[in-house]
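Objective 1b. Sequence-to-structure analysis of Outer membrane beta-barrel protein.
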Amino acid sequence: MKLNLFFATLLLATVSAFSQTNFEPGYIIQSNGTQVDCLIKNEDWKGSPTTFVYKLSENGETKIGSVATINEFGSKQSFKYIKATVQIDQSSDVVNNLTFERNPEYKEETVFLKTLVSGKASLYFTFHENAPRYFYSVGDGEIEQLIYKRYLVTRIKMGTNEFYKQQLANSLTCNSVTENNFENLQYKMSNLVNIITKYNDCENSESIVYNKNKQKAKFNLSVRPGVAFSSFSMQRRGDELLHFDSDTGIRVGLEAEYILPFNNGKWSIFIEPTYRSYKTEKQYLYVDMITFQKYTTISVNYTSVELPLGGRHYMFVNKDAAFFIDAAVIMDLTTLDSEITSTDEDSYDLNVSADAALAFGLGFRYKNKYSLQARYHSGRQLLNYDNINSTYKSFAIVAGYNFL
């Protein structure tokens, strides 16, 4: 319990100290039209943020911006958000929630729209009801949603309202933009960005594309050797509790990590097949059936290939260094030749069958190449017997080298 409390306190302290995204030079345009240079906390928002954090100087106090006080905020060509009052389709795009209504179900909302392309024709984006929503405007015209909606034709057949093609064909009229450009146009960011920039080029209007530096998913493959400090205890019903000596053993893992393509690469998921070994023994004084006291040596051999599967959160100090915390569920793929044996008492010859466990880690990464981590594993049963309780715990120091 004390170790759990210490580890949780350490995690919270680290999060408080380091869980911040870098502030970038940017600007805000206030409700009165005044533009102010500032530093904006870029959180690589997935959809439309309701608020954002900024400060007027490096050492200034942090402030909160919202649609109530800010008309626009951005950071050069990295990102740009504008305040807009628009009609947004409220329809769900989840297959199980589709309805027979073909037309959008509009609701007026005031939101920050992410600008994807700025020019004579502009393209905007938000994420609403688990679906991407794209908007456009031409010249000084109003911002309108591009209509794309899936709906039910029958209970087993789905239809698609692709009115966005007609909207763009009617609005983007220019010599080099032909009808063929709209027939196979997909309701995807890259396709819509391309058609908007094609029109702007045709109209000799400069296009500023804000998503060209969009965060991409990354894949890391790391070898992760380490040292594990393990302990084990067991108790047969009616017998005394046996605490075995702690053991220091090796562990070797191969971790595949997928960095998710949003929030500046601060989140990832990972899987790490790991070999680990724990061996210990203890002399036990027991009473046999004739009431004689005898010593037996109980040996524990637990060797396994386990499979942690979990998520990780990075807290960047600068572009080269980051602290991270992670959590995982651990299951044994195989326990190899694991067993518990006794020299003189057959009732302590036992088969090992490990339960799943949880793992919590705290670490540091440098240049996306090197890492060092402390990881704590919750206690778990190693024996599947009704009359025996057991607890196996471990704590590991793990080094890592990313070779991709």
